[in-house]
Amino acid sequence: MKPLNNPMRRLLATILAAGLASPALAFDLGSDEPITVSADSARLDDGKGIATYTGAVELVQGKTRLTAERVVLYRSAEGLNRIEANGSPARYQQPVTSGEGETDARALYITWSASDKQLTFEREAEIEQNGNLFRGDIIHYDTEQRVVTAEGSKDTGSGPGRVEMVIQPGSGTISNDSTQ
């Protein structure tokens, strides 16, 4: 896979930052709003701080929503610190910070890490926002530094997978406003 050139990286970061720019990306542990979880079944291992939910799982905090077939929540003494979700695909949705539209992300595996301030979409990852689309095998988003890194799939003999972007001309959704 060829690395993206600098203008392409800046454009990609700008597109995704328009919707993923909030420092409280994913689930905001500093919020007064609770995270609600619903599922067909649940198992809590309080000693290990692990809760496993299976069957049509839905996590919601405000307008942020994660749906998956299976979700595992990890808690430490400080509180919730990691969410792992998988599905066919798992789906993450959040309103864009500018107030118009929604970030809709899908992948077979979605991981959110509070300590790393990282949101990762793995295998068949796709992020769509206001008609703009980004695909890759793995997409990492550093929620603190607001840096997006993407990788194509490994070479399986028929050639490596590639990162793909579809950018709508004149969509007006691309913003480099860091005051959000």
Description:
This protein is mainly beta and 180 residues long. The chain has one helix spanning 6-20; strands at residues 36-38, 41-45, 50-61, 64-76, 79-95, 102-113, 118-129, 132-142, 147-151, 164-166. Strands 1, 2, 3, 4, 5, 6, 7, 8, 9 and 10 form a ten-stranded antiparallel beta sheet that branches.
Give the gist of this structure:
This protein has 180 residues and is mainly beta. It is 8% helix and 52% strand.
Gyration radius (Cα, Å) is: 17 Å
The tally of beta strands, per DSSP, is: 10
**Helix count, DSSP H or I runs of 4 or more residues:** 1
| Largest beta-sheet details | 10 strands, antiparallel
Ends apart, CA distance between termini: 33 Å
Shape: globular
Spans of at least 5 consecutive residues whose pLDDT stays below 50 are 1-25, 172-180
Q: Give the integer mean of the pLDDT values.
A: 77
Q: Classify the beta-strand content into a percent band.
A: over 45%
Succession of helices and strands: HEEEEEEEEEE
- Which percent range fits the helix content? under 10%
Structural class label: mainly beta
List keywords for this structure.
180 residues, disordered N terminus, disordered C terminus
Helix and strand topology:
Elements: H1 6-20, E1 36-38, E2 41-45, E3 50-61, E4 64-76, E5 79-95, E6 102-113, E7 118-129, E8 132-142, E9 147-151, E10 164-166
Antiparallel strand pairs: 1-3, 2-3, 3-4, 4-5, 5-6, 6-7, 7-8, 8-9, 8-10
